[in-house]
């Protein structure tokens, strides 16, 4: 996948800003429309008022139409401070009495005799609003319709429209920004559980295949469900595999024991020298096979117990001593000096005694087989935080660059010596399951040490 | 307003083709190398404008100024026609008949001008940034101290009307005012008088008619006659001219009426078709500037909106604060004043009351 999908946040932000933008544009257009209407209405009233006042001032004097244009009408129009004013008074004969002779009233020709009318128009090259008021005169000498036409330029209207629109625009913009900001915060807040879930899954131990238990909103339930379902299936597969290995090892052990016994019964007497050599090798290989099978079983058991056994406070010294006894065979070379040291305060750890014993047995066994030359020491000690089981031998030890590899399954540098390579792996598995570590201390004048570190159990109050 | 005869005729003066009359043109050559020529059409007496023009040329020595004087109505007719034909007529129009300037602006003959100076102009003296009022001139009474005894000096419009009624014989033919048929400013002031108080103005007009008031075309003539004692009282004189005359004739006294005082602001307008509208605007800015206003107060028009009355003027200490000042607002209301039917009717009424009722010996000046 070369192109990254845009983030949810970006998608939502884009769409919300688009919607807000369109909405703001619509609102501003509406505001402009309303502002224009409002400005027109407001100033049309002035215009009509002035026209009516002028029409009212028409009278018949001595048989002729007389005009006394009221100053107040102009002052009324003057409320639109910067606007020019044009007017024309037309008598019943259609002649101009006063004002601008060329000011046209469109309706006049159309024969529309409404009392009042307002239109847009152009006069002297300027856009104007034209109002026409009609005065019906019924004097015997002057009878008919007289008209007053008043026109005013649009500066004040435009200014009012602009001002109203500007204010509405500012409001709309502020509101849009608030809405956008609020939406962004809300999106961030709403997306938090996704991050939390991701972090929870990321933080998990690779061996932990239990269902994810993070509180998520309802919308994420299917997602978490899928993860858990997948992990459940994976867990089943792993269980199946482990059971298969355990079963296989178990199945192999029985014929293997029989095989060993048969070999022992064979006797070496009738064999010539070369035959005896082969026989010894068969014997040795069978022993290795038996040990490997035992380790596989032990490994399977350790893993099984780690998943299922409830940990309880145990004395590390007791466990270590039992392991020490189990690991040292009766047939051990009497030249080797073997010792077990333990403190009196018996450090307690929270653990599974069986697994721990298995781990320590494997470490001691490993040391006996591959390390010990003259001396093997098993020590238990503790400090304020941790308890330690140390297995020290005077053998060559493992160089630091091989430490990491040593704890991997079937990955020992000494396979030619018949090592199965499962010992450290089992020990590490167990110690990790107890929250501890398996470590090495580089070889010094005394020897090479393997250290099992386990957290001290603190809940044991006297 | 007096048409001043011009004595200076520079040889350079290019023949002004459109102008048939040349005796009303005064030329102020540039103090330095001429960079521009500003043409001002005005209704203001040259004597009043000269200090302002001199001061302007000090700060802008490269500008030569042609100053052309007309009567208000003549100037209006000229400007109106020039605007209609879209011909240039000067770079700045100055007129005391602001109603005529306003009409010109309303007809689209004016160019808009804004500057820091115009921003300082009072609201009532600025329309559309096209017509600006640059003076503050109360309409006052003048009288001759030798002819009018101190006890009889009228201080309000009503007192004047009563005085004429009570001392009819003494004042018969001795009161002068504008002939509003000829003088635009006279018409404007009379119209606003009528608007101000119809009854008082009616009474006053009637009293003046009974007293056979004399109507003259221009302030100057009336002031001269009052100063010489041929007339006793002048009504509705522009304060600036009256004060100038009073300084020259100790017998002439000024009363700022205490009931109400119309205040006229002389208008200025830059025509749209001006050749050097920039120079017109520059001169306008100078008129409105602090320096220009100061010169106007001390040397040209004597009255100002903010300051007190000049010395020896009978009236309230400060026109504006006393609340009796009624400035003629430069705004659309002046269109009603300029309406031709209105004007015709008003002048007819006025003539009927003031002239037809009275001595047939003078019907028209």
Your description of this structure?
The complex is a heterodimer of chains A (462) and B (365). Chain A has helices at 8-56, 71-77, 106-110, 155-203, 221-266, 273-308, 316-327, 353-371, 403-406, 423-433, and strands spanning 58-61, 64-67, 85-90, 96-99, 116-123, 126-138, 143-153, 312-315, 337-341, 348-351, 375-382, 386-393, 437-441, 448-455. Chain A is an alpha+beta fold and 462 residues long. Chain A has three domains: 8-161, 2-Layer Sandwich (Beta-Lactamase), CATH 3.30.450; 207-308, Signal transduction histidine kinase, dimerisation/phosphotransfer (DHp) domain (Helix Hairpins), CATH 1.10.287; 310-462, Histidine kinase-like ATPase, C-terminal domain (Heat Shock Protein 90, 2-Layer Sandwich), CATH 3.30.565. In chain A, a hairpin with a 5-residue loop joins β3 (85-90) and β4 (96-99). In chain A, α1 (8-56) runs antiparallel to α2, α6 (273-308) runs antiparallel to α8 and α7 crosses α8 (353-371). With 365 residues, chain B is α/β, with parallel strands linked by helices. Chain B has two domains: 25-135 and 265-300, 3-Layer(aba) Sandwich (D-Maltodextrin-Binding Protein, domain 2), CATH 3.40.190.10; 137-263 and 316-356, Periplasmic binding protein-like II (D-Maltodextrin-Binding Protein, domain 2). Chain B is 41% helix and 18% strand. In chain B, β2, α1 (46-59) and β3 form a beta-alpha-beta unit. In chain B, α1 runs antiparallel to α12 (290-300), α5 packs parallel to α8 and α8 crosses α15 (340-356). The longest helix of chain B has 17 residues, at 340-356. Chain B starts with 24 loop residues before the first strand and ends in a 9-residue tail after the last helix. Classes of the chains: A alpha+beta (462), B alpha/beta (365). At the A-B interface, α2, β3 and β4 of A face α14 and α15 of B.
């Amino acid at each position: 996948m070369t192109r990254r999908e845009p983030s949810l946040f970006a998608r939502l932000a884009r769409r919300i800003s688009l919607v807000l933008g369109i909405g703001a544009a619509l609102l501003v257009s509406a505001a402009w429309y309303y502002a224009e209407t409002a400005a027109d209405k407001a100033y049309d009233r002035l215009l009509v008022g002035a026209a009516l006042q002028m029409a009212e001032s028409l009278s018949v004097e001595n048989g002729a139409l007389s005009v006394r244009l009221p100053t107040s009408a102009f002052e009324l129009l003057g409320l639109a401070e910067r606007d020019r004013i044009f007017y024309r008074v037309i008598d019943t004969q259609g002649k101009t009495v006063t004002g601008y002779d060329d000011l046209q009233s469109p309706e006049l020709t159309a024969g529309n005799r409404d009392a009042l009318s307002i239109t847009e128009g152009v006069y002297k090259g300027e856009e104007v609003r034209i109002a026409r008021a009609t005065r019906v005169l019924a004097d015997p000498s002057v009878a008919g319709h007289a008209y007053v036409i008043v026109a005013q330029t649009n500066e004040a209207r435009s200014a009012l429209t602009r001002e109203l629109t500007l204010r509405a625009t500012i409001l709309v913009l502020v509101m849009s920004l608030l809405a956008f900001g609020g939406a962004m915060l809300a999106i961030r807040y709403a997306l938090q559980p996704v991050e939390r879930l991701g972090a929870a899954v990321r933080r998990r131990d690779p061996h932990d295949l239990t269902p994810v238990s993070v509180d998520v909103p309802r919308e994420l339930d299917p997602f978490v469900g899928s993860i858990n379902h997948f992990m459940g299936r994976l867990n089943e597969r792993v269980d199946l595999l482990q059971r298969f290995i355990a079963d296989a090892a178990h199945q192999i052990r029985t014929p293997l024991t029989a095989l060993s016994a048969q070999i022992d019964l064979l006797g070496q007497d009738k064999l010539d020298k070369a035959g005896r050599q082969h026989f010894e090798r068969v014997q040795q290989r069978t022993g290795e096979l038996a040990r490997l099978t035992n380790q596989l079983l032990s490994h399977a058991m350790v893993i099984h117990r780690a998943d299922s056994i409830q940990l309880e406070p145990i004395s590390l010294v007791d466990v270590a001593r039992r392991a020490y006894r189990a690991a040292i065979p009766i047939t051990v070379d009497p030249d080797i000096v073997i010792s077990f040291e333990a403190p009196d305060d018996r450090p307690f750890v929270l653990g599974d005694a069986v697994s721990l014993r298995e781990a320590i047995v494997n470490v001691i066994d490993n040391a006996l087989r591959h390390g010990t030359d003259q001396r093997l020491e098993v020590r238990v000690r503790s400090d304020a935080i941790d308890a330690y089981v140390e297995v020290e031998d005077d053998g060559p030890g493992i160089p630091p660059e091989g430490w990491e590899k040593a704890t991997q399954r079937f990955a020992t540098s000494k396979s030619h010596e018949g090592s199965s390579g499962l010992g450290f792996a089992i020990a590490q598995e167990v110690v990790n399951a107890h929250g501890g570590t398996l470590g090495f201390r580089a070889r010094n004048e005394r020897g090479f040490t393997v250290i099992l570190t386990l957290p001290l159990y603190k809940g044991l109050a006297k | 307003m007096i048409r001043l005869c011009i004595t200076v005729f520079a040889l350079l003066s290019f023949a002004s083709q459109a102008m048939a009359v040349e005796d009303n043109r005064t030329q102020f050559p540039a103090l330095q190398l001429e960079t521009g020529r500003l043409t001002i059409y005005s209704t203001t007496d040259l004597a009043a404008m000269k200090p302002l023009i001199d001061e302007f040329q000090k700060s802008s020595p490269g500008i030569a100024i042609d100053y052309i004087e007309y009567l208000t109505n003549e100037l209006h007719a000229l400007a109106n026609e020039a605007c209609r034909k879209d011909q240039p007529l000067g770079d700045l129009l100055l007129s005391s008949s602001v109603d005529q300037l306003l009409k010109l602006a309303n007809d689209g003959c004016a160019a808009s001008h804004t500057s820091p100076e115009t921003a300082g102009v009072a609201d009532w003296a600025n329309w559309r940034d096209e017509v600006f009022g640059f003076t503050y001139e109360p309409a006052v009474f003048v009288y001759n101290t030798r002819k009018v005894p101190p006890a009889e000096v009228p201080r309000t419009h009503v007192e004047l009307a009563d005085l004429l009624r009570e001392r009819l014989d003494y004042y018969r033919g001795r009161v002068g005012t504008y002939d509003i048929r000829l003088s635009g400013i006279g018409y404007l002031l009379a119209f606003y008088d009528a608007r101000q108080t119809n009854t008082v103005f009616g009474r006053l007009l009637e009293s003046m008619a009974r007293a056979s008031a004399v109507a003259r075309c221009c302030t100057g003539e009336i002031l001269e006659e009052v100063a010489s004692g041929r007339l006793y009282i002048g009504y509705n004189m522009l304060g600036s001219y009256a004060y100038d005359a009073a300084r020259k004739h100790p017998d002439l006294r000024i009363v700022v009426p205490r009931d109400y005082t119309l205040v006229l602001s002389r208008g200025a307008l830059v025509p749209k078709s001006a050749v050097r509208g920039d120079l017109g605007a520059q001169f306008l800015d100078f008129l409105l500037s602090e320096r220009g206003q100061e010169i106007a107060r001390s040397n040209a028009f004597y009255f100002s909106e903010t300051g007190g009355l000049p010395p020896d003027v009978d009236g309230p200490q400060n026109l504006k604060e006393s609340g009796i000042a009624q400035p003629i607002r430069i705004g659309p209301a002046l269109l009603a004043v300029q309406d031709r039917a209105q004007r015709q009717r008003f002048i007819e009424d006025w003539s009927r009351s003031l002239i037809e009722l009275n001595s047939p010996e003078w019907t028209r000046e």
